[in-house]
Design a protein that fits this description.
The complex is a heterodimer of chains A (267) and B (257). Chain A is an alpha/beta fold. Chain A has 7 helices and 10 strands. In chain A, helix 2 crosses helix 3 and helix 6 packs across helix 7. Chain B starts with a helix and ends in a 7-residue tail after the last helix. Chains A and B meet through strand 6 of A and helix 7, helix 8 and helix 11 of B.
Chain lengths: 267, 257
């Protein structure tokens, strides 16, 4: 899946997106989903991609994952060219994508079983550890349909974390959850991130969510999908989604977001 | 317990009605034998071994043919789901042949294989294989794409993807298809056994056929009851466990749908 290393520019760059373009052709229209997008994500960084629908943020995430191939440009992960999906970059989807034929534990084990370097005992210990980490050790043998939406996403998070990926790519993972469950998950994901120092790229259309979670918030504009601006969020962690400290950033980014929409309409 | 009691009462009442109908004397005892005579026939046939022997001959044909049909149909269905060309060719053929009542294979089987086991196996396989191909193909195509995407990111590829993701994900469709294949195979085998004498073994269908030849209605009805019981048993042993698994894992009521 990965080519020989290419000399790195900055040693701490975990993900480098270079001039990536992607267009989708359907029978009715050609959509320029991404147009010359470049972005560098540092090791251990939490980056949020935000923008209106159609700005290509999910496409960019898919290209980083290796699930979609870019028309031009390239993505480097740890200095190596991304040519397909790999378990160094695991994805968490908007729907949980848990496998219904396996129980919660079986789902977390799925990725671990694909790691030949672990013994079966180690795999079980790791799976149990991550179920405990997301607070679901008691639901080890629960069937997927018995879990609530929030619990499903917790299992999906455990499943993504268990094989120890370098990068976690999250595509609006909390979008379909109720507000209370979401607030709890903001705390959890921040704590897990602060302990594990994974590199996280998080796609969302919720400005407050992006400010709460991200070290940087990358604002994208639609048609064609481009990076409009990048905001550094210099707030202490863990951050509370309901804290007024978030207000200043939130209103600035929300205003910029409105601008990108206006420009898109006037073009 | 209550459900068993209700079911038991229902069948006892049914047999009671049957006995009453016989006693009313409106129908000739030759055409409508008493349940008692049927029971007597079954008991005697059980003791002298004819019933078990015939049941074994029939079940062997059915099981071997069915397993062969599934083993052929499952991979073919996966292949047609993978390739548009195979779908347009093999898939179209399967769809066409599936609409053919599988009894229609009997004349061809007799000409090709003679009055042998092979002819019977051929009919059973033809009854099974097309349903299994179509169900597998449809099942593999109906998997939510997100399962395949999630599996890919975790490093599942090739055989692992097929056996650990695509097959289990299409299980709800597979079970339906395999059940349909079983029903077709069972019906066509019975028809074939009644229709022709197979020199290599005497199945339940033959027993039924000779019951009619001898005007032994107790035998005809007795064998029919055995055939029904075998069908019920197969459903309980072969498919119920899978349906229960689906029901509990997917959280759907397969039986109701």
């Amino acid at each position: 899946m990965q080519s020989p290393p290419i000399p790195r520019e900055g040693a701490l760059a975990k993900l480098v997106v270079e001039n990536v373009s992607k267009r989708f052709t359907s029978q009715r229209a050609i959509v320029q989903a991404l147009d010359g997008v470049s972005l560098t994500v540092a090791e251990g960084e939490f980056v949020c991609l935000i923008g209106p629908s159609g700005c290509g943020k999910s496409t960019l995430l898919d290209i980083m994952a290796g699930l979609t191939v870019a028309d031009s440009g390239r993505v480097l992960a740890d200095g190596r060219l991304v040519q397909g999906p790999g378990r160094q970059r695991l994805v968490m989807f908007q729907e949980s994508a848990l496998f219904p034929w396996l129980d919660a534990f079986g789902n977390v084990m799925f990725g671990l079983k694909l790691r030949d370097d672990l013994s079966q005992r180690e795999r079980k210990e790791i799976a149990e550890h991550f179920l405990r980490l997301v607070g679901l050790e008691k639901f080890k043998h629960a069937h997927v349909h018995e879990l609530s939406g929030g619990m499903k996403q917790r299992v999906a998070l455990a499943r993504a974390l268990a094989p120890d990926p370098q990068v976690l790519l999250m595509d609006e993972p909390f979008a379909s959850l109720d507000a209370l469950t979401r607030d709890q998950l903001y705390d959890d994901i921040q704590h897990i991130w602060m302990e594990s120092r994974k590199t996280i790229v998080f796609v969302t259309h919720n400005v407050r969510e992006a400010v709460c979670l991200g070290d940087r918030v990358v604002l994208m504009s639609p048609s064609p999908g481009r990076i409009a601006s990048i905001f550094d969020i210099a707030l202490p962690r863990p951050r509370d989604i309901n804290s007024p400290d978030l207000g200043d950033y939130t209103s600035r980014i929300a205003a910029a977001l409105k601008n990108t929409l206006k420009e898109a309409v006037s073009e | 317990m209550k459900r068993v009691a209700v079911a038991l009462a229902f069948f006892v009442a049914l047999i009671g009605l049957w006995e009453l109908a016989v006693r009313s004397g409106r129908w000739s005892a030759v055409l409508l034998p008493s349940p008692l005579y049927v029971a007597e026939y079954l008991w005697a046939a059980l003791l002298d071994g004819t019933l078990l022997e015939s049941a074994w001959v029939t079940l062997k044909r059915l099981l071997i043919g069915y397993v062969a049909g599934v083993l052929i149909g499952l991979p073919l269905g996966l292949l047609t789901s993978m390739s548009q060309t195979l779908e347009d060719t093999v898939g179209a053929m399967a769809l066409g042949l599936q609409t053919l009542p599988s009894v229609c294979w009997v004349p061809l089987a007799l000409v090709w294989f003679g009055q042998t086991e092979s002819a019977m196996l051929f009919v059973v396989i033809m009854g099974t294989v097309w349903s299994v191909i179509i169900a597998t193909d449809y099942g593999a195509r109906s998997i939510p794409p997100i399962y395949a995407r999630a599996a890919r990111t975790m490093g599942s590829e090739g055989m692992h993807k097929w056996t650990r993701v695509i097959l289990p994900a299409s299980l709800p469709f597979l079970v339906t298809g395999m059940k349909q294949g079983w029903a077709f195979a069972w019906r066509s085998l019975m028809a074939a056994e009644i229709y022709v004498t197979i020199l290599t073994g005497f199945g339940l269908g033959h027993l039924l056929h000779y019951g009619r030849e001898l005007n032994a209605m107790d035998q005809v009805i007795g064998v029919m009851i055995v055939i029904v019981l075998i069908g019920l048993l197969a459903d309980r042993l072969l498919f119920s466990p899978w349906e229960r698994f689906l029901h509990s894992r997917w959280g759907t009521n397969v039986k109701a749908s």
